[in-house]
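This section describes the prediction task in plain terms. A model, or a person checking by hand, is given the sequence of a single protein chain and must write out its three-dimensional structure as a string of tokens. No templates, partner chains or ligands are provided. The sample shown here is typical of the held-out split.
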Amino acid sequence: MPDLLDDLRKAPAAVAIPARRAQALRRLGRRHRPERFPAGHDRSVSAGPGRPPPESGDYYLYVGRLELYKGIPELAEAASRYRGPHRFVVVGKGKQAGVLEAARRRSAPLALHGWLPAAERDATYARARALLLPSIWYENAPLVAFEALAWGTPILASETGALPEILHGGMCGRTIRPTADGLLAGIDHFEAEDLAHGQRRAARMAYETFHTPARYLEDYHRLIDATWERKGSVRAASPEPLGISVESARSPAGSPKDLLGRSVP
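The expected answer:
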């Protein structure tokens, strides 16, 4: 761990996906400001930029591993106690599948699936009222969140960890307490504000603005360019080691060379 911290302090640049990690890097006393990037998603979706997202259906959706730390027991209890007009659709597999199955046998409005083929999974995202992320453990940027946003589906996300950042200030969802009571209260408030319909365009816009591959590559290129500019400034202000000048390390055309004498663009 000390070696890792030392490497982080010396690195010319650092990328932190959640803002909380960027703050942690700043506390390490880094010389340069860590860059925080929203996570990207490379799946092409047929909703497509500029097209309206599909209308929501009658269910709340969970997609992912069925494990304790994902809040599956809390989800099962919430579904068992739910008295509203909607259903819960669960896509995934894991050790807590039996907890959900037991709730379904007790007449909870649950539909349970394993992993679905891509086309069927995407259609399930597209019609969900909201994606549920009730994790009780810290999460940073789960892929399922960006798959949902790509289809214009808002998110009800646990207030734990970095999940609230995915909501972009409440533009495309709401935070919930990761408990059965918190899930039920979150759904009630979500329905009271009619966000299943009211946030679909905003959810799609958040995806197009922050999470497309093109945006992600643009951010990385910006970081790389800024890093080279900083390194160039440092070299210009530092003495030239071993009598090797900057000019002698350049090709006749003025471009730098690598250790093998090859020109570097």
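For orientation: The radius of gyration is 24 Å.
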